[in-house]
Amino acid sequence: MARGLQKLESQQKNAAKANAGGKSNLKTRAAAFKISCPSCKLPLSDYTNFKAHFESKHPKLPLPTEESLAPK
Ligand SMILES: [Zn+2]
Q: What percent of the chain is helix, strand and coil (3-state, nearest 5)?
């Protein structure tokens, strides 16, 4: 049993390595963007980044709350 488990773990490690530099990287990056700017649709990874973006790009607009951006 222990040997089988080790084999499985090493297979998973190899799979993780393959994913790190492969095509699936794009998917992972897209998943990292949790919110998008309501004004220009730019994807942003979190509210801190969004706030920095919004304050520099849309200084005249009121800053949306984190709650209003988070997917329900
Ligand atoms: Zn924007």
A: 60, 5, 35
Please report the pLDDT score of residue 34 as a whole number: 84
Q: How far is the CA of 22 from the centre of ligand 1 (A)?
A: 30
At 7 the pLDDT is 76
The number of folded domains in the chain is 2
pLDDT of residue 16: 61
Residue 22 identity (one-letter amino acid): G
How many angstroms is it from 43 CA to the middle of ligand 1? 9
Ion ligand 1 neighbours, Cβ < 5 Å: 37, 39-40, 42, 57
Range of the domain at 61: 33-72
The pLDDT tens digits of the residues spanning 37-66 come to 999 999 999 999 999 999 999 999 999 999
Say how far apart CA 7 and CA 13 lie, in whole Å.
10
Same domain, 22 and 37: no
CA 54–ligand 1 middle distance (angstroms): 5
